Amino acid sequence: MQRNCKKNTLMNKKLIVLFSLLISTAAHAGAPLWTIFPAPGSNPTQIVPENGTATVNYMVQNQSSKSKRLIIQPIPGIIQTTTCTLTPKGKIGSSCP
User: Fold this and answer.
1) Lowest mean pLDDT among 7-11, 45-49, 52-56
2) Which of 31, 57, 70, 84 could potentially form a cystine with 96 if both were Cys, beta carbons 3.0 to 4.6 Å apart?
3) Domain count of the fold of the chain
4) What's in the keyword line of the UniProt record (predicted)?
């Protein structure tokens, strides 16, 4: 009897681990939190001389139901000119240039 109980306990633990892995994998999949695309009139593919500069503008749209504040991590030669604070999807301010 104890042997069956130990087997059942071990089997239950294995099933719990399996279901936990399946649930955590599904929880991470989903729609992107925001979309990024070139702003109207902006040319994202430019030839820039070695000592030259260029400006490329992008639009960012929030796809989340929560507010977001996006900041570019430092990249040599890239400057973020404006901060991007997004309101929840569908509200005024849910996109920024």
Assistant:
1) 7-11
2) 84
3) 2
4) Signal
Count how many residues are written for the chain: 97
Domain enclosing residue 51, as ranges: 31-97
Q: What is the dihedral of CA 54, 55, 56, 61, to 10 degrees?
A: 160
Residues 3 and 36 in one domain: no
Q: In 1-97, which ranges are E strands?
A: 34-38, 58-62, 68-70, 84-86, 95-96
Torsion angle, CA of 25/32/94/75, rounded to 10 degrees?
A: 110
Q: What is the pLDDT of residues 17-48, one digit of tens each?
A: 666 666 655 555 578 888 999 999 998 899 98
The answer to whether residues 1 and 41 belong to one domain is no
